[in-house]
Structure formats: C-alpha cells, structure tokens
Amino acid sequence: MIDIDKIRLDFPILGREVHGRPLVYLDNGATAQKPASVIERINLMYSELNANVHRGVHFLSQECTTLYEAARENVRRLIGAESREEVIFTAGATASLNLVAHSFGRQALRAGDNVIVSQMEHHSNIVPWQLACEMTGATIRTLPFDEQGALEMDKLPELIDNRTKIIAITQASNVLGTRPELRRIIDMAHAHGACVVVDGCQGIVHGGVNVSELGCDFYAFSAHKLYGPTGVGALYGKRELLERMPPFMGGGDMVDTVEMERSTYAELPLKFEAGTANFVGAIGLSEAIDYLRRLEPSEIEAHERLLLARATERLTAIPGVRIYGTTPDKCAIVSFNVEGVHHYDIGMILDKLGVAIRTGTHCASPTMARYGVEGMCRASFALYNTEDEVDALIDAIEKAIRMLRR
User: Which of 400, 404, 402, 401 is nearest to 353 (CA)?
Assistant: First the structure.
C-alpha cells in the first residue's frame, strides 16, 4: 500500500488547523489540495520564467512555449490521445464543455434533432446543451437513474434515434459516485451516428482514462480536481471533429491571417486557444501529472476504496442516515442526509469540529430533484485522506446529530 504519512507531507495545507482543530479535508470532489511540487513550480514560473507563449523570440518566451507544449504532451499521454493536436487547453471543464456545445453543437444540431443528457450530470454538462438546443431548435432528452443511482440503461434504446446527435454523460457522478457504462453508451451512440461528450472531472481522478480505448468523441476535465491549479483544464476531441468545428472564441494566437474583411484560423490546437494562454496553469497541471506518475494507480484506488468502505459502513450504522448512490463500483464519494436535520446545519457544525465537507446541491439540481431533497452532505476522498479522518468525520456527524436533536 502507498505510504499515506509520507504523501501527506507533500501537501502543506494538510498540516494546518481550523477553529483550533487539525484540518480534516473531505471536499476533494469540489477541489483537491496541491502538492508542494505544484506550488513550487507555479512560484518558479512567476518568479523566473514568466513570459507569454508562442509570440516572442526572446529567451523567456521560448522557454515558456517549450514548457507549455511539453505540458500538452503530458496531458496527451495521461489521457491516451493519439496526437497532441487533440488536446486543447481551456479554463476548465466548464469552458471545455461550453466550447463543444457552442462550436460542435451549434454546427451539428438542427430543429428536430435531440441531445440525450443523463439525469445525474453536473450543471456544466446540462446547461450548455440547453443553450445549444435553444439556439438550434433541438431538444433535450433525459436518461434517468434509479434509486441506487445507476443509470436506467434499458431506457436508452427508447431515447436514442436517428435524430440523436449528441449524448452528454459523466464518467463518474460528482454526487453519487456512480460510474456509468461508458463503452456501452458510446457503442450505442456511434451505431446511431451520434457523438458522445464525457465529463471526466471525477473519473480522471478516480481511475483515469484512455480516450483512444474508450472511443469517446470529446472528453473534458479540470486541473484543480487532479491536484493541479485552478483556472485551467483540458478538452480532448477527435481530430476529424475538431478540424470541422469553427472557433469558439476569436482573438490573438488562434488566427493565421487577419484582414478587416475576414480572417483565417490557426491549425489545431491553437484554433481553440484564443488570447493569452494560462501557460502557468497548464505547466502546473503538468507538474501535478508528474507527481501522480510517481505513485501506483492501483494502490491509490485500493486506498480510496478502503476509505469509501469504512465511511459507508460507519454511516450506515447511524440511525436516520440515508446514503445516496449505492452502486457497487462507485468512486470514493459518499453523499448523505440525516433524517430531521438540515444538511447545512450538519456542514456548519462539522466545520467547527475541523471537518470540511460539501453541502447543498453540488451543482446537480436534477439529482436532488430525483430524490426529492433540497440538498445533501457530501464527503469526497482523495489519496491523502486517512482512516482516522473517516473516523473523525463519523464522530463529528454523531456529535452534530446529538446537538441538533436536543
């Protein structure tokens, strides 16, 4: 097994206290903490190497450009893309999904077409498709999930037809932890001529991806959930699709020629990277990838499964607690409510006890509506969390319940 004590030393924030108590950070599904190597790389970029990429002949610009494009290659290797031109740096998964919806979606969709979106999606993989449909006259069709949190795959054949152009699906639900049957969905979509857009924000952290083997058409993820910096992410797209798509934004670096009457556009991947790139963020992401490569993925997954099993077992033993999402292969996320107690109250008391969890809708309102709740508590685990922290979570929940039910 991985040496958790040693790993925790790599993350400076884990040594701090909140409200006079050691920090127990269990909000990793929202954003993960950063290892010292990432923080140091970002500091080095700003203190010694800061210069705009692709646009200068001087040393700093050339050096930054080399590091930026090396980061692109690092992402390509991480996700198993066939070529670096298929990797677009964006401001994050939300920006990536909007890029696909507004560029590919508006090009592919017509009145009478439909987009299938699963009921468990994050808002970032719902709202962009609603906007694209409003602009084109297409409609949204919903693939529901059952009480356990598993997609009702038997209903997909009823939803998909020859007017289905896009299926938007998560690799792993940020609320339920559910991992949909992506290969089955992708095969069915391609048999009907539809493309599949995957939100990989949680999946890339818990299990990873090889997009070439998976066969998806687009894949989006954010760096900050993968132990990298905020404000940067990546979009994978099959090259033949990206070639046909119009630019999403116009500006510097995405053009070939500009005249007052018309412009021509740069080759991939720059066609979709208008303006000054977040080169520091991209290089920070590359450093996070390098950090993770020093660890054994199977050991990380085994450790996270251990934490999830312990949390699930202990939560289940608390009277009045309901866990949402109970599929066997779920990732290390557990969402729950306590009967008769508001989720915000639980979260606030846990905070005072040093335990950071997420409360609310988790940007997944349709998931809340499916269960008839306004929100949930969510504990999401990372490679640096410990069994003692799981126990601290449960002890804090039990104390909060005693306080709130007096």
Answer: 400
